[in-house]
UniProtKB/TrEMBL annotation:
PANTHER family: SNRNA-ACTIVATING PROTEIN COMPLEX SUBUNIT 3
Quaternary structure and interacting proteins, as annotated: Part of the SNAPc complex composed of 5 subunits: SNAPC1, SNAPC2, SNAPC3, SNAPC4 and SNAPC5. SNAPC3 interacts with SNAPC1.
Superkingdom of origin: Eukaryota
One cellular-component annotation, GO: snRNA-activating protein complex
Biological process annotations from GO: snRNA transcription by RNA polymerase II; snRNA transcription by RNA polymerase III
InterPro entries in UniProt: snRNA-activating_su3
Protein's name according to its UniProt entry: snRNA-activating protein complex subunit 3
């Protein structure tokens, strides 16, 4: 089953919970029959361990929902007694044995502290023999040798996970629907640095099938959207008014022969037409167009594991790879408002100010009589203190350009 449904292992583990051992064989046979058929919405590998065949996301979801029992993808916790009874029946044991097993294997019987004292989860008993405790002790000892226990990136990542794992919304309206699709989407940084060809830095966002491509676009944070073009030594306060994102709003995604353009604003242009016409002149297969704001993920036909494209600011090109498509599970974050959910973000180190060496760089100056180097990098505070008087008048000669540090958005 794995070899057939590799990229969807998660779905099988999470959602293919059946009490009928025969049933999974039936599904395999059905899948095999379907994969022989050219038109199928059950993804099979096109290239083993690389990417799947093309399939329609909503039809794939329907295939799953038809095969599952409502209880398999329900967010309600199973009734403990009936699930125990079912387990006992499947294992062929009596109710008494089941009750005994539950007591012996219960968490309460796993103790390494005296029965009359409350447990302290941070204390590992001396000379542990349990392997998990030995490993834990090793880890604790190692951590004690470190000067800094966690940097801000780890703390932030931990916090994010803690806030979203299994999170239930405050109101029912914000509840993710049962049977909703969740997609794992990796958006890669443009390979503008040689090393990016090898390390593949990316962000991972979780999106629901009902999200539009425009919502994915808004969830992608890229420094080229935040660049400010121009020289601002006479009016540094004006710089935020010239952010690229506000001036150049066109962008497109490319999935399976279709360019999905962002047409939400009057200033948006169809930037994909150049490629489409170029391809037409050279007898490439014809490409079509659609609007990203009108296209939901469930409407897409895609290959899982296959590199697609997101292009914005004219030529800032990001590979987009959908790595998983699955049904929601009750342990997922079920608060709609928290989606698109950032699950991973690549860390980049930040450039520090040449003067204070503390704050992140905001300005780069050239031909600067006050600077120790040309060009020179400054934080906002040092830049203003050094180059302007108390009234904000420019002192001396220099050119100043806003600098956007990609590490500032970690
Ligand atoms: Zn970009
Ligand atoms: Zn500084």
């Amino acid at each position: 089953m794995r070899s057939l449904m590799g990229p969807f292992g998660t779905i099988i583990e999470k959602n293919y919970i059946t009490h009928d051992p025969q049933r999974s064989d039936v599904v395999i046979q059905e899948n095999m029959a379907a994969s022989k058929n050219a038109i199928t919405n059950i993804p099979d590998y096109e290239y083993t361990d690389v990417n799947t065949n093309i399939f329609h996301i909503d039809s794939f979801r329907t295939e799953w929902l038809n095969r599952l029992q409502p209880g398999d993808f329900s967010f309600q916790s199973e009734d403990q007694d009936s699930s125990d009874a079912l387990f006992a029946e499947e294992m062929g044991i009596s109710a008494d044995t089941m009750a005994e097993l539950k007591t012996v294997c219960s968490l309460d019987s796993l103790r390494c502290h005296p029965e009359d004292q409350p447990p302290d989860p941070d204390v590992v008993p001396p000379d542990p023999t349990l392997n998990t405790l030995i490993q834990r002790k090793k880890k604790q000892d190692y951590r004690a040798t470190l000067k800094i226990s966690k940097n801000r990136h780890d703390l932030y990542a931990d916090e994010l996970e803690r806030l979203t794992f299994g999170k239930k919304p405050e109101t029912l309206d914000d509840m993710v629907a049962e049977g909703e699709i969740i997609l794992n989407i990796n958006v890669y940084y443009p390979a503008i640095f040689e090393k990016f060809c090898y390390v593949r830095p990316h962000i991972t966002v979780l999106m629901m099938g009902s999200h539009t491509l425009a919502e994915l676009r808004d969830a992608i944070c890229c420094v080229s959207d935040l660049q400010v073009c121009g020289e601002f030594s006479n009016m540094p306060d004006m710089a935020p008014d010239f952010i690229s994102k506000d001036h150049f709003k066109s962008a497109f995604f490319y999935f399976e022969g279709v360019f999905y353009n962002d047409m939400r604003y009057p200033e948006c242009q169809d930037t994909s037409i150049t490629t489409i016409e170029w391809a037409k002149d050279r007898n490439f297969p014809t490409y079509t167009q659609a609007k990203m704001e009108d296209t939901r993920f469930v409407d897409l036909k895609i290959k899982v594991g296959f590199p697609y494209l997101y292009c914005h600011q004219g030529d800032c090109e990001h590979l987009v790879i959908i790595t998983d498509v699955r049904l929601t599970h009750k342990d997922d974050c079920l608060d709609k408002k928290l989606y698109p959910l950032l699950a991973h973000k690549h860390r980049v180190s930040t450039q520090k100010c040449a003067v204070c060496h503390v704050y992140i760089v905001r300005w780069v100056t050239t031909n600067d009589q006050f600077a120790p180097s040309n060009p020179c990098l400054f934080c906002d505070k040092c830049f203003r203190m050094l180059h302007f008087d108390t009234e904000g008048n420019k002192l001396g000669e220099f050119q100043a350009f806003p600098y956007v540090d990609r590490g500032a958005f970690n």
